[in-house]
């Protein structure tokens, strides 16, 4: 066996990537530091998307890198079943301290998708443990993204993530997409619209199926993957009221909104709404190693504990749950977030970011702009040749201008590193302006 040549691209089948186009013109990162990536062909690329929403502290943060290196020399792996590390308990406590109310118990996973499937299974098992096993139905939302597990894809509402994979989970409904560009286009922050325009459907579903059959509703507090769509003021609070009234669990999928993206510890805190379960991943440990988690209310946790007199209370888990390297990165990340006041700094940057986002209004083909915290989305009018072409063209033009952004079809997302300075934001948007100029 000899070492494979670096230019042999055939064996790696890439995720969520047009593989043929990529392998014809690969974009290979070989290093990164702070706000920048460095490519195999000598480019320096500014990170305008915090990795994939996930590296809010920038890249190769020395404190995080050192923590992982030291951990790898001390304890590289601990069995996650029937054994544990003290640091796993420490990190769980530091996470729980940042969530409101009774959200007190953290179950570690290895990704957002695993966190979503864990939360859905926890919801079903909880109802069974309390003698309401008839509650098996789940409710997601049109255009929701909840990862790529069969559970997450079933409650998710983006057609491309669903159509190739058969019938999916039975007993799943979807709420309306809580955004209407005709009414809320180019809105700064939360649209001012009657939330019941989008939530009457939930009451109708509860009437149709009866609350006794419905386990949980899962939503992103801010819709990320579909292109940064912000629900109207009052929507999440009203959703909480309706679900609580009918004993339906509310799950916030905080994989994007957790740990600073909104200038807040999480969406539950930002919006002042307390769900029963939250998922998280990405920023929990600055994506320096794979990690996700679910935080559960004491009601859910204690009910499950009390329902099993002897033995395993929740038959679920992963080999790498609370992996020591991921936990070490997590503790270092949480220390930096806390000691460097990152949430407040991100909140202080949000008004400049909002102005810069909406300053794109007159760029070619821009038909909507949205923003909240340090998350921005814009929609391009589709090229008559077909959807997604303009989004991909702007993504490639940005790369030529030394900027990494995100294109999902014809929606573009911008997510600056949370510890950016104003001049970092200015540079993102000047590069983006030049990328638009390339589109002609
Ligand atoms: C709300 C939410 N839930 C679950 C996942 C899945 O997480 P994992 O990928 O770790 O399994 C996500 C992930 N979200 C995600 C991942 C990559 C790109 C983009 C984008 O918006 O372009 C979004 C997410 O945003």
TrEMBL record:
Matching CDD domains: OAT_like
GO molecular function: pyridoxal phosphate binding; transaminase activity
Keyword hit for Chloroplast: no
Lineage: superkingdom: Bacteria
Alphabetical list of InterPro entries matching this protein: Aminotrans_3 (IPR005814), PyrdxlP-dep_Trfase (IPR015424), PyrdxlP-dep_Trfase_major (IPR015421), PyrdxlP-dep_Trfase_small (IPR015422)
Keywords: Aminotransferase, Pyridoxal phosphate, Transferase
Stated family: Belongs to the class-III pyridoxal-phosphate-dependent aminotransferase family.
Name this protein carries in UniProt: Adenosylmethionine-8-amino-7-oxononanoate aminotransferase
Lineage, opening ranks: Bacteria, Pseudomonadati, Pseudomonadota, Alphaproteobacteria, Caulobacterales
């Amino acid at each position: 066996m000899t070492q494979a040549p670096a230019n042999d691209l055939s064996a790696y089948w890439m995720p969520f990537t047009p593989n043929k186009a990529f392998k014809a013109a690969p974009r290979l990162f070989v290093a990164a530091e702070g706000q920048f990536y460095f490519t195999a062909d000598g480019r320096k690329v500014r990170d305008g998307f915090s990795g994939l929403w996930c590296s809010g502290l920038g890249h190769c943060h020395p404190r995080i890198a050192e923590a992982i290196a030291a951990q790898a020399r001390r304890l590289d792996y601990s069995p996650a079943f029937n054994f544990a590390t003290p640091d796993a308990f420490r990190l769980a406590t530091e996470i729980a301290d940042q969530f409101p109310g009774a959200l007190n118990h953290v179950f570690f996973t290895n990704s957002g998708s695993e966190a979503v499937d864990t939360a859905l299974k926890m919801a079903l098992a909880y109802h069974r443990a309390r003698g309401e096993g008839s509650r098996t139905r789940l409710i997601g939302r049109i255009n929701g993204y909840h990862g790529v597990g069969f559970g997450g894809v079933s409650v998710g509402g983006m057609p491309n993530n669903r159509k190739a994979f058969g019938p999916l989970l039975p007993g799943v409904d979807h709420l309306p997409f809580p955004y209407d560009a005709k009414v809320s286009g180019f809105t700064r922050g939360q649209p001012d619209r009657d939330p019941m325009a989008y939530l009457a459907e939930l009451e109708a579903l509860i009437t149709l199926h009866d609350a006794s059959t419905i386990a949980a509703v899962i939503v992103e507090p801010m819709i990320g993957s579909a292109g940064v769509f912000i629900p109207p003021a009052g929507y999440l609070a009203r959703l909480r009221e309706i679900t609580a009234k009918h004993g339906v669990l509310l799950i916030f999928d905080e994989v994007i909104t957790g740990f600073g993206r909104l200038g807040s510890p999480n969406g539950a805190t930002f919006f002042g709404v307390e769900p029963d379960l939250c998922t998280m991943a990405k920023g929990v440990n600055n994506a320096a190693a794979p990690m996700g988690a679910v935080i559960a209310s004491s009601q859910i946790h204690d009910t499950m504990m009390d329902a099993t007199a002897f033995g395993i209370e929740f038959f679920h888990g992963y080999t790498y749950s609370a992996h020591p390297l991921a936990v070490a990165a997590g503790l270092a990340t949480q220390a930096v977030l806390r000691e460097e006041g990152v949430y407040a700094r991100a909140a202080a940057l949000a008004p400049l970011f909002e102005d810069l986002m909406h300053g794109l209004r007159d760029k070619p083909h821009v038909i909507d702009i949205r923003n909240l915290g340090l998350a921005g989305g814009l929609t391009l009018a589709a090229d008559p040749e077909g959807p997604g072409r303009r989004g991909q063209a702007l993504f490639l033009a940005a790369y030529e201008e030394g900027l990494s952004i995100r294109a999902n079809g014809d929606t573009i997302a911008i997510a600056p590193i949370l510890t950016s300075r104003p001049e970092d934001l200015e540079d993102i948007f000047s590069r983006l302006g030049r990328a638009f100029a390339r589109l002609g």
